[in-house]
Predict the 3D structure of the following.
Amino acid sequence: MSEEQKCDNCGEVFEDDQKLSEHVDKEHPGDVDNKESDNTQFITYEKIAIMGLLLVGVFIFINQILIFNISGGLETSANSDSNIQTTANIDATQDDIENIGSTGEALLTVFPELDEAENQDDVMNVMMPSGEPVYSDAIGGANFDEMEMSNQYLSQWYYEISEDVRQNHPETWDRFVDLTAAPNGISCEFCCGLGAQAVDEDGEMMCACAHLPSMLSVTLALMRDTDYSDAEILREVMKWKTAFFPQDMINLGSEIAGEDIEDLDMPGMVGGC
């Protein structure tokens, strides 16, 4: 015997499914259509919700890919800048560095791009630095956009870092003296009348102006805290020297490159002496 069936619309009870179906078709045809419509509408909403979730997922996936590509591009750019600011494909050997006898020879050795310079603007693009060097953290945050503050900090820091290197890193100190006691341009020659050498064989400065200890601080920091070669360090110090003495250094670079020297609209000296 079949179980009794109850009509959901009116509550009337029937002996079997067939009689219930006949009752519904006769007495409640519109309600059946509405239920089917409601079911169809529910299914439609469900599909829309699923499609929306899929679209959100696709958007998140694409967004992550874009972020990854942008981050990779920035990292590649940073690495590219690092190469430009340090080695720049310098082929100079240690013997080449030891045989330098003037600031001009130093520029020719550590700025091989000067051979391809066609005018003074090209010389400036090669030698004149700007922004934050990749090793800024190694020199206390000093940078080329805040030369006055950087010069003040680096010049005062020299007495601290030189003492540390002398006492705790004797091999680095000997390397420092070998490089800076040679006439390779690590000097304040354009403000104090010294030549291309401004440190004696004991590592003592021949001048106490702010520019010299600033350049020496950069030299010491790069020797102590990076793996730069002497050629790479000399290149970076020449950039700082160019930032300190723009006119004289760009004119010297132009002379080395065989280009005409023009009147430059830039200061002769930056930072207090």
